[in-house]
# Entry
Amino acid sequence: MPFDPPPAPTLLLLAVVVNGAPVLARLLCGGRLARPLDLGLHLPDGHRLFGDSKTWRGLLAALLAGLSAAPLLGIDPATGVLFGLGAMLGDLASSFLKRRLGLPPSTQVLGLDQIPECALPLWLTRARTGLAPDQVWALVAAFVLVELLLSRLLFVAGIRRRPS
# Structure
């Protein structure tokens, strides 16, 4: 059976779903299960490894969102989980960099808040999705635009704490 890669808009939707899952989980769970991934660890620079907003609940939500949304989008579940993991690793990388820069938690940094959480899962799943490098970067650019728009709308609706 020939390999039929998912359409780019489908992968963009998957990126939005897995990255939005932690926000939805926070809304649904409140403070429950909000244990920080870094367990409160401070590095020698005096700042937290990631901070309180990066939780086990959010990681689990992204993985479950990838697992459940991928088949609905015509993508195999394993790719969905890998996509969710990549998105959360990208998000953790940006939080790590912001802590090293001494930025307060939840500070918004254009690009740093969007690019890693979309680029990393797309690169990790390239062999499974058949994306060429230029397609990856086009999807990342589209994700940044969609994320900025959605973030603003969700902030106005009272769902997000801060807009991007």
